[in-house]
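Lab notes, practical 5.
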Amino acid sequence: MDESKAFTPAQRAGLDERLADQDRTLAAIHQLEAALGDAAPRREQQWRERVVTALAALDEATAQEYQNGEEPDSLLSDIKRTQPRLRTRVRGLRTHYRQIRDAIAAIGHELHQPAEPADFADLRQRLAWVLASLQHQRARESDLIYEAYYEAFNVDLGDG
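Output from the prediction step:
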């Protein structure tokens, strides 16, 4: 690729940070999926503890990803700053991610409340929505980054 059509070092660092954030979040997603897939009947306490632990890991991973994405030198901030046509989509991505984070926090708070046994099917369904939303968010963000790169350099973003 022509050197004039490459990421700046700051943009490359932003992309690398985004990929590391997504890897950390993906590992937490897999941990939560495994916990949700465990048998729950007659093992309610162990099941709940494993789900709570996995959800806490997802909460931490998404908090870091969200915080990094909000930084002024993040890839999303760079796109918002340099490509006015894409600003609304960046705002939409950030808003959607905040909503996902709110859902994670609400379910986590609910699971920390003593008392009533969890409705396993309901909890699995609600957390499946969160996980699907994270996958959708990831795809939308990737689409935006590829579109921004193409718009800036009029060339497809390569794998490396």
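Observations recorded by the TA: The mean pLDDT is 89. The two ends are 11 Å apart (CA to CA).
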